[in-house]
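Data card: per-record layout.
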Amino acid sequence: MLENRAAELERRLLAVVPPGDGGDWPNLGVPAEGPRAKAGRTQALPAASDSASDGIGMDETAFGDTGIPRGSGVRGTDGRTEALINHGRQRAKRSRGLWFLKHWRFVGIGAAALLLGIGVALLVLPGGAPGWPSSVAQVQTQIKRACQNPDVAAEPSGLNFACEKDTQQVLWIFSLLTSGNNPGYLDSSTGRKGLEPIQPAQGGDIAWSLNLHHPYNPANPIDSLEVAARAINNIISGATLTATNGGALVEPGLESTPANCQRYTGSSQVVTRHGYPTRCASAITSPGGQAALVSDVFSQWMGGTPSALAAQAGVLFQNAENPGDPRVQAILQSLPAFGR
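The structure for this 340-residue chain is written out next.
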C-alpha cells in the first residue's frame, strides 16, 4: 500500500516537473513505469477515479498550481520516500547495557561454573597433591629387573614376599628409609653400602645363592636389590642350610613363632614339616598384619634399629598408594636430606 501511494504521488509530481529537471527536488525518485510529460508542457492530472482502484482517492483540489500538496511547508521529500520504500524504517540499535540487565542471571551462572571448573582442575591435575620423592620411580623400575631373578625366593619354602606384585614396595621403602634411594650410599660407621645398605661381606654371602653370573657389586643397584629381596624372604620364612655333617640345618624365620603369627594373621596356629622352617598356618594378607611384618623385617634387616623407625617402615608400606596420608608426609619430612 505504501509503495502504491508513493508511486501515485510521484506520477502526479512528474506531471508538473519534467524528468531530468530535478529543480528543488534533487532526490526525487523516478518510477519505473507511468506517464511522463514532455519538456515544456504540462499534463492534466489523472482523474480521481484513476487511483480509486489503489484505494488512494486523492483529491485534485489538494494540489496547487505547481502540483505540490498545499500546506506542506517543506521543499520536496529529500529522498525520504524512496529510502522508506527501498530500505524500510531503521530499527533502533539495541543497548548492550539493556541486554546485560535482561540476561545477568545467565551471565552470572556461566561465570560461576567457569570458576568452579578451574578450581576442580587445579585439584585434580598432577602437581597439586603430595607424592613420593621422584627417586622412587627409578627404584621401582630397577625392582622389576631385579625381581626377574627366580633365585630371590626363599629356600626351601619358595616364599617371595619381596617381589610379589602387591608387596614388592617393601624394597623401595627400605631403600628410601636407609639410603635415600642412592646406589652410592656409604655408612662409614657401620660399613654398610649400596642402595639397600648391607656390609659387602654379608651381601656376598647372600649373592652366592643368587647365581648372578657376575661378581657381586654392592654399588650396582640391581645386585643390591636382588640381595635385599633374598634376605627379606629368608627373614620372613626362614631357610634350610646344609650343616657341616651333611645334615639339614633349619634356621627359623619370623613366621616360625606362634606369637608372631597371631600378630600377622590373627591366629597362632603354625605348620611344621621336617627339614623346613615352621610357618604360619594362615597366609598374611591383612594390611595391618603385613605392616606389622614389614616393621619386624626392617628391624632385623637393619640390626638394632629403634622400634619407632621400624614402625615407620610399616606405615609407609601400608600407605604405598596414599602418599598424601598425614603420617606419611610427617615421616618424609623427618628423613635426612638424602631421603627426600
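Known properties of this structure: The first strand starts at residue 239 and ends at 242. Residues 22-68, 71-76 have pLDDT under 50 and may be disordered.

See the next section for split statistics.
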